[in-house]
What we know:
With 426 residues, this protein is α/β, with parallel strands linked by helices.
Amino acid sequence: MDSKRKVMSQIRHLVKQYFDRQSIEDANTDSRRMPLIAPSYGWQEVVEAIDSMLSTQVTMGSKVKQFESMFAEYIGKSEAIMVNSGSSANLLAISLLTNPAFRNRIKPGDEVITPAVTWATTVYPIINCGLVPVLVDVSLETFDIDVKEIQKAINPRTRAILLVHLLGNPCDMDSIMEISEKYKLFVIEDACEAHGAEYKGMKVGSFGHISTFSFYFSHHITTIEGGMVLTDDEEIAELARSLRVFGWIRDLKEKDRFAAAHADIDPRYLFTNIGYNFRPTEIQGAFGIHQMRKLEELIKIRRENARFLTQNLKEFGDFFILHEERENTRHAWFGYPLTVKAKAPFTRKQIVTFLEKRGVETRPIMCGNIDEQPVMRLFPYRKIGELTNSRFIMRNSFFFGNHQAITRAKREALVEYLKEFTSELS
């Protein structure tokens, strides 16, 4: 045992040494280049993952449970169920609400209201589970779902609202929860890009009946791949734990009750429902434990970047719509978005091409208006109105990276690039 501890100590030292040297090399690279993504993990996560691999305890276990507990406490929910991706989290959330074992299940053909500007795997699970997505427009100033459009979309078949805190900008949760209570609708918060965002002092993901998060490589914190489903409802949590892994009873709090009722079946292989294989690994849990300890500092850097950019880009207000942190919210700034105004003397393609040539990586706003994506021609859905803002965002909006590797030099360089670009227009 002493020899193993000694080897582990040597591994820890070598991994830390590697990351220290990497930091020096990174500091000597082009200080003005702005990558879309920068890894947020360091030597601690790698050592913890190596510990799991050396122990051979590599599938879902104690480290996953520890991360679930830490994340549930952080968001303010009583139950957290980790899965292998944010997309799986969304699919699990809709699957359990439509499962026959759920007492107030959503039935095939029922409708779920969701924003038109979103990521594909917000909408896909609605279709996967035999429901009808109802696309509504969003605000140009926030990219979040337009509450007035939610009201227009409601009919007798409406059962849920699947909202998205896009790019970490909190939705109007007071209005949405008021609508939920009035019409008895489930609220699912897709907070996959909104770790640590707040609405009136409460974390997003703490309001709805269910919330989902992603820990993909590009997000505020990462487990490389990974996701989480959160709830305060014990029935929902138990069903999520069952559906996460094959529908068996191993991870259920009431597994002994099921085992006693079916004593003739080996309890290790007792299946009470259908399900998926959405298990995360202990390696993902190992990353999550250490990433949680860094999350607030990472959010602080993103918000500082955003404050600087918003203040210094106001001089370009004739050309761009800028997002700002609204009163009573804490924006988590997954990225920093710009929308080219209709009267600007240039197109999105022109400004994006200019920035990309100078090392500023850019990306469209998720899927843009998903109503215009060809995949939607394959399945039934509804849309409310012409989705005017969503169509505009599809053509005029983009974002660039905002993370812990965006330094003051990079921020200042971006401002200079925009000055250079706009000066060439005159």
